[in-house]
Write a structure and sequence with these properties.
This protein is about 30% helix and about 20% strand. It has about 375 residues and is of the alpha/beta class. Strands 3-4-5-6-9-10-11-12-13-14 form a ten-stranded mixed beta sheet, with helices on both faces. The structure holds iron/sulfur cluster. Iron/sulfur cluster binds near residues 127, 129, 134, 137 and 173.
Length: about 375
Amino acid sequence: MRILPLNAGGKLHLKGLSRLELEQLFQGWGEPRYRAVQLLEWLYAKGVEDFEKMTNLPHTLRQRLAAECTPHTLRLEAAERSEQDGTLKFLFRLPDGAAIESVLIPAEDAEGRLRRLTLCVSTQVGCPLGCAFCATASLRLRRNLNAAEIVDQLLQARALTGQRITNLVFMGMGEPLLNLEAVLTAVRIWTDPAAALLSPRRITLSTAGLVPEIYRLADSGIRIKLAISLHTTDQQLREQLMPIARRYPVTELQKAARYYAEHTRRPVTYEYILFDRLNDTPADADALARFARASAVAKINLIPFHPIDFIGPSGIGATLRPSPPERIRAFQERLRRHGLAVFLRSSSGLDIKAACGQLALSWQHPAVSPS
Ligand code: SF4
């Protein structure tokens, strides 16, 4: 059994426990296993955190839960809503004082009705992978989040807005595959039928391309969607943009993407940030189309680059500029002619710094604010 996280007061973080772990906990306390389902229903389906209100649990159990466990992990520090598109960004304080961010992104249909509400969650405080285009990279890694801290981002966003979250993406601070055990536990909790929160089909994990962990995720039995941050098919350029590429070459990544798609029957997407004159030519689009087809990947997300000049990037990071809109359109059209499904991701929340890690960064370095 894995080591369960305790808070500073020595209490067990309840939101980090899967159904199986709750059953083991209650059995150890001499309680029947079905108490686990009852607790999952209170905490997640009904959103009740006060043990005294969990009326179908015996009084003695409620007292023991209050004495030895806590449902509280995150505290809201700040929230900002984008005037442009309604994106809502939360800054949460962790029990040890570190800060993380979650972003809630609404999508509407043609009639202006809410079609999807997607929460982007963080999995680490900072990130060790050092991608040249990323603001979080400058924070370096402070620590992994535990499962309760990941799970609670969704519950907090739901409680703070009063809205049901329909989709979830692991695209916030950190590389989720570097914290795979906690991520898998969080997914098990959110998708438990008693929690009634999310279907695995509505969860997407985005990775910089950790090849062994892509195979582990594919073999985990959890069927979520996978997005791979590719950004170029050129090995040398990718090594400059993403140092992790030195360890896992694009050819290995291509094989892992194919394995994931074939073993999980879930779609794999390539994420591609367009940089001015670096990876946005017609030849780049043709190479990407060939690469995607060889990986059994049929979907590409194109992403406009959000400049990160405010962190004072060095090396190749200092030279990166966004592709102009006309070149983005031409790139998209060329990929479509290759028969690929290509989507242009909007710049959701650009005005509230929704690009990776930027709110937490400005919080930790208030003197350095994005222009
Ligand atoms: S882009 Fe993702 S993997 Fe790369 S440094 Fe930023 S948070 Fe880490």
